[in-house]
Amino acid sequence: MNTIFKLKPGIFVRHQGERYIVVSLIDLESVLCRKLSSRETTKLLIVELERDSEKASKKRKEKIDLGAVNSEEWSLATKQMAQVKALFEMGRRQKTREEVEKIAKEFDRSLPTIYRWIAKFEKDSTVRTFLKEERIDKGSSRLVPEVEPIIAEAMKRLLMKQEFGTFGDVYLEVKQACIKQNIKAPSVSTIRNRFSQISEKERVSSRQGKKASKQRFMPTLGEFPGAEHPLDVIQIDHTPADIIIVDDVYRKPIGRPTLTIAIDVNSRVLMGFNLWLDAPSVASTGLCLMHALMPKDKWLKGLGIDISWPCYGRPRKIHTDNAKEFRGTVLGRACENYGIDLEQRPRGSPKHGGTVERSFRTYMRKIHAAPGTTFSNVKSKFEYDSEGKAIFTLKEFEYWFTLYITKIYHQKKHSGINTTPLARFQEGIGGTDDKPGIGELEIFADPETFRIDFLPFYERTVQRYGVLIDHIYYFDDVLRMRVDEPDPENPKNARKFIFRRDPVDVSVIYFWDPDSKNYREIPYAHLGRPPASLWEVRTIVREQNAKGNSQVDENIIFEGILEMREVERLAAEKKKTARRNQQKRQDHEDKRKKNVTAKKMQLPTAILDYQDNSNSSEDSVSSSDGFLDEDDLILPFEDIVVNRS
């Protein structure tokens, strides 16, 4: 299934059931289209267009869950996509038969196969396109485990040094070692695939030394390398916002929220953000990315804000720091599938995240003018009563921050680019009289698939009771036929299936059905249980373990959750921690609800009276603004690394 389509002249789209062909892009919000049935030309809004699936519906490629793909197959698919992408970008006239033959020889495929790959890439430029379909003879022959260390040792001696040899040399040595051990030797292509899994940085470091690797792969101060156009590079990071917020019920202080932002390096526009009462996690990162890469019209309408935020689309690269929520299989594979490079800067190298850090300083400087600010440090705060002055709930602060971004920050000249961020973004897409833009937007066609792709996944066998995850049982009739199902590759073992779960709502898990190639929702085995978040479940488990109770069961967990909620309800008026936990739970509940149209909030007068009283541009902000001293950090954020200039 094609999850991305490029919005450019000549493609077919649908609008209210009618088929159209795109004639030209008018701006970032609308296109000129011609209706196929009447040949009538009309202007249509981009957010109302759908991918034309008439041809795709005739022969639809089976979906594949990213978590179910083994590392070797994933590595080969990404390598194939990279080579085919290079051929595709050459164009038909520049691409020669010799270049196609070279790729065909490398992957041991025929010329027609490579041409089919190019055609498939043009329709769906994701890694899923290159993942092989399930084989009829699946499980018949595999590489024996003893071969892996032989290949690794041979590559280390012959390919990972300054006087490196060839794949043929490695193959001969591996073959001789396999003959001695009476095991089947791998092919040359297998050795090539293993070598391709070694990063270019590791190869250069091993062959030329760490200094050469550092000079080649570490960006220098100045312009971020590769960010020549909008959506080339997006930087994402978290920080505690310099403001105290209040709860919805008592309007009393509950502490700082975590702000996650995604900034476009070329234009400096804020692509999207997420406010979160929990510590940074994969979940908050996924929510920020979804907000950043999807159109925001419906979201803005729900907030009651009457200005456009036309910044969305697929980026070429996402750049992060080395925090744990940015590492791992879930985020990496999801980005790879959509053709997005996920790059992490090394520890102790703040210069690599300069754009996002300067943006944080700019935003925090503005927050310092809002009621309830904590400022950047104790010295700046003086005797200001942050908790006593706090007036914003989490939703109200989200509204306030959105107003600032869309009506002030995006519209004000930025000294680093000598224009406004929004103008730079629009010019980079559409072009100007003397400089062409990239000319097309790559849109994610299925937001729900995008969301699930960024959820954590688990591998579990199905038992008679269903599935057990974090002491909680899940069951549905769809699992009944999967009980004790043998592994097709190793019938002696039970088959493991892929399950995904949203940490905000653990009342349901998503079962990847390998037959229908679709997700099925699996509820609690005991349907009377209340919805809960992973934060609540693990809090109770930790409390029970601290009491010496290692045999925690589901009944204890949900009894503990209900007791915890009642205690917090009674203590909320007096204790900030209890109010924060209640508000965190309400925030999770709000995120559970789907397809609910938000009403415009009745905000305090101070929000509506907010004025832009600063003429400073981003790069002219004092380097001390927007950062917290370690003594200022409150407990929920004690594990966050605070940026300092």
UniProtKB/TrEMBL annotation:
Bias kind Low complexity: ranges: 612-625
Pfam family membership, one: Mu-transpos_C
SUPFAM superfamilies: Ribonuclease H-like (SSF53098)
Domain of life assignment: Bacteria
InterPro entries assigned: Integrase_cat-core, RNaseH-like_sf, RNaseH_sf, Transposase-like_Mu_C
Stretches the record annotates as Disordered: 573-628
Boundaries of every Integrase catalytic domain copy: 226-429
PROSITE patterns (UniProt xref): INTEGRASE
PANTHER family: TRANSPOSASE, TRANSPOSASE RV3428C-RELATED
Protein name: Transposase
Species in which this protein is naturally found: Undibacterium amnicola
